[in-house]
Amino acid sequence: MVFKYRLEKILELRESKLEEEKKRFQKQSMIMFGIQKKIADNQNEITVISSKLSEGNTMFFTSLYINRLASLKNKRERLEEELDEAKKKLEEIREEMIEAQQKVDILKRHKDKAKKNYEEQEMKKEQIELNELGLIMKRMKDEQQRQ
Questions:
Q1: Rounded CA gap, 49 and 42, in Å?
Q2: What's the rounded Cα separation, in Å, for the pair 130 and 140?
Q3: Neighbours of 117 (CB within 10 A)
Q4: Which residues contact residue 1 at a Cβ distance below 8 angstroms, ignoring those fewer than 6 apart?
Q5: How far apart are CA 91 and CA 55, in angstroms?
Q6: What is the pLDDT of residues 57-102, one digit of tens each?
Q7: Domain 11-146 is in which class?
Q8: CA torsion angle for 73, 78, 79, 85 (degrees, to 10)?
Q9: Do 90 and 32 form a contact (C-beta atoms < 8 A)?
């Protein structure tokens, strides 16, 4: 007889849930990476504008650079807030992924234990059958010797 795990469907569902969580984690990581890139680009632009501001331009350009710097600093603050939110969400997803992994691991251990018990029971049954077969053969041999 072949071993059939009675909770196989549940194990498959939990494995698919784990895969979904891994995909969500990867997607959120990419979002976070994108935000970090935007922050770096923003910082580079702030550096460029700051250097232009110190070059000694006309009052008109100085005013434009100051306004642009203020705008970029506001944008950086918004991006940093987005990054904080993305980090929190990533952490939540990571915890859900760990929980899903633990559930899969528990069922896999249960399956392995159930399979081991099944194999032990099958071996016992086979041993009993072999013992009975041996007894039958001994009886037949004893009967032949009597005759």
A1: 11
A2: 15
A3: 11
A4: 122
A5: 44
A6: 777 778 888 899 999 999 999 999 999 999 999 999 999 999 999 9
A7: mainly alpha
A8: 150
A9: yes
Listed residue (82, 81, 96) closest to 24, CA to CA: 96
Residue 48 corresponds to which tokens in the numbers above?
Answer: 């460029």
Report the C-alpha gap between 27 and 58 in whole angstroms.
47
Domain edges within the chain: 11-146
What is the chain's length?
147
CB 99 within 8 A of CB 24: no
CB 11 within 8 A of CB 108: yes
Helices (H), the chain: 8-53, 59-146
- Name the amino acid, one letter, at 61: F
Reading the block at residue 1, the tokens are 């007889």
Residue range 117-141, pLDDT digits in tens = 999 999 999 999 999 999 999 899 8
**125, two tokens:** 């049954």
